[in-house]
Design a protein that fits this description.
The structure is a single chain. With 263 residues, the protein is an alpha/beta fold. Strands 3-2-1-4-5-7-6 form a seven-stranded mixed sheet, sandwiched between helices. Strand 1, helix 4 and strand 2 form a beta-alpha-beta unit. The longest helix is centred in the middle third of the chain and has 23 residues. The radius of gyration is 17 Å and the shape is globular. Bound molecules: S-adenosylmethionine. The site of S-adenosylmethionine has 20 residues, from helix 6.
């Protein structure tokens, strides 16, 4: 029996309509991931949090409602389904969740946030920065981490949740699946050791790093409930089926910005 609150999902279980959750989130884990991360980060009511790559902001609203944080949700893109700016969806979701007073939305991304240095006590990012790795390479990913470090207060906590691959080579039969399409998983996904090194290089101290024990369950939920996955069973669901948990995983890194940077 599990006895840690993060894997019991007491708060995420209050939102059981997974088709809705996955229509408003983008990536594995939905609100279960948000709860797991929030507990690992030690979120506290009244704290300021920036959600980097918030998409439609459902996780942001969940963190504001269930943990009482004051959140700024950043997202630079338009929605691929209806073409509306993501920030418009964030505003709508904040209203629907009754957290308009605690969730702000800003059309911006890392590294060009233009936010003041040391603005937040927490930074949170799920299933977003790996796309920067594919678009901008390792240097772009490092610049994104550097910006998150800059906008956090000294002592502030960064929670990073990312689709990652296990520390093994891509199985030959899986390669055609993970190298196909725009933002292929092979281009986007890194491993935990590499990611920890990059977070450390950005100036953070690592508090905790793990391959989530529930990664397979989160990906399975994604395959069954994400609208794009449901519409294309030969896409991501086929990749996950062929993989059967050999390569694809989900990594979590919790890190702190030190109070005093080394000279
Ligand atoms: C796959 S979605 C995940 C969103 C959300 N965290 C979730 O789990 O539901 C990734 C988001 O990252 C955003 N994004 C793209 N480039 C970005 C950047 N440079 N900085 C921040 N977010 C970015 C995209 O607009 C997209 O909404």
């Amino acid at each position: 029996m599990r006895n840690d609150s993060s894997s019991a999902h007491r708060r995420a279980d209050a939102y059981p309509d997974l088709d809705h959750v996955y229509a408003q989130c983008s990536g594995p884990g939905g609100l279960r991931l948000a709860e797991h991360m929030a507990d690992a980060m030690g979120l506290r009511a009244g704290a300021t949090l920036v959600d980097v790559g918030a998409n439609r902001g459902l996780q942001t609203c969940f963190l504001a409602k269930e943990y009482g944080v004051n959140a700024l949700a950043l997202d630079p893109w338009d929605d691929r389904e209806d073409g509306r700016p993501m920030v418009d969806h964030i505003v709508d979701n904040a209203r629907a969740w009754g957290v308009s007073d605690r969730v702000l939305a800003l059309r911006a991304g890392v590294p060009d946030t233009r936010l003041a240095t040391g603005s937040f006590s927490f930074a949170y990012s799920t299933t977003a920065l790996e796309m920067i790795r594919a678009m901008e390479g390792g240097a772009g990913y490092q610049a994104a981490l550097g910006e998150i470090h800059r906008i956090l207060q000294p002592g502030g906590v960064f929670g990073l949740g990312e689709p990652m691959h296990r520390e093994v080579a891509i199985p030959d039969d899986l390669r055609p699946y993970v190298t196909r399409g725009e933002f292929s998983w092979a281009e986007c996904f890194s491993d935990l050791t590499t990611t920890v090194a990059q977070v450390t290089a950005a100036g953070f101290e690592i508090v905790h790093a793990e391959y989530a024990a529930e990664a397979t369950a989160w990906w399975d939920e994604f395959a069954r409930h994400d609208p794009f996955a449901k519409a294309d069973p030969d896409g991501d669901p086929a990749t996950l089926r062929v993989d059967a948990g050999r390569w694809t995983s989900f990594g979590i890194v919790i890190a702190r910005k030190p109070h005093a940077s080394p000279a």
